[in-house]
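Board notes (copied after class):
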Amino acid sequence: MSMWQQWWRQPQRVWLRRALFQVHLWSGLALGLYIVVLSLTGSALVYRRELVAYLKTPVPRYDESARWLSTEELRATAQRAYPDYEITDVSGTPSRRNPVARVDLTRNGQKKERLFNPYTGADLGDAFTVGEQAVLWTVRLHDELLFDGRGRYWNGVGSAFVTMLCLTGAIVWWPGIGRWRRSLVVKVRRGWRRFNWDLHSAMGAWLFLFIVLWGVSGFYLGVPEPFTSLVDYIYGPLELEERPGDVALAWLSRLHFGRWQSGSLKALWAVVGVAPALMFVTGVSSCGGTGSCANVPRTTSLSREECKPDLQVGRRTASPSDATRAVSLAARTPEATCRLGPDAEPRGRPPAPVATQGTIPDRTAPPDTASRQRHK
């Protein structure tokens, strides 16, 4: 059986798949905090416009027929409201988009920026509220990791590693042609850690395209040069007409942020955006925080139908009647293969010598000698 056929039918026995499992595991642990931060902040920033509109200082409705106070009147009003401050500037012109007047004040080196109602002279509040500052801080964390200058570049590099994590996860997820449908569902009656593993596996399968999209688009937003160079190579130098490659990159950016006009699409992006953080939590929980996933339940009862693809045990072929015997999961890996009977071993290993009472088999003896010792 070729390696491709083995991976198609029994991928747990392919050494490359086991190696990629270790790459996926350790890279996921290394990128865990980064993934959680970007997942939660990105999901919240889907509603960036709504958050800013809710947290900013309320402004009056624009009234074209109402009289706008003069600069001297606004200055005098602000001075009465803040007698200990020096008025340094009064700005603002009548407009439908921003119908407020802004007043800059200073005292002992401390600056204050306030908004005033241009019709009544009422003090409205801060020009830049604490809530707006929190949203801006979240934007900087998501876009630049709070680093100035090269922060966006390193964020793109991190997104490239996330893309690699998704691709290795897709290879590790494949359970074989006979069991792939069962890896799309979550069974809740197999213990907490097994539930975490099933949830991690199913979420990765159903949301694979979303997570790859965010990884690739994050790489583009942080390191755009490879993408623009590829578009230039395919479509030639930039001209007045918009090239198909430019349209594709623009859509890549839109798909990353998910700020749609449709409320349903926006809600979908916000909910699915939490999935990478949840996948990190379920992945760590299923492995118990170790590097071997040894704490995933080592035996799990399977039904007769679930073990049909794995009736090949050791060097013999199990008959249909064997499927009625006790069946357990030999969990060398979380997707371990079935074994039949109380003494059956996982595929690929010969049956271990069994010692009878009062005798100890010689492990170094040839198989026939060990067999004779067991029957003494």
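Comment from the instructor: The chain has 14 helices and eight strands. The longest strand covers residues 101-107.
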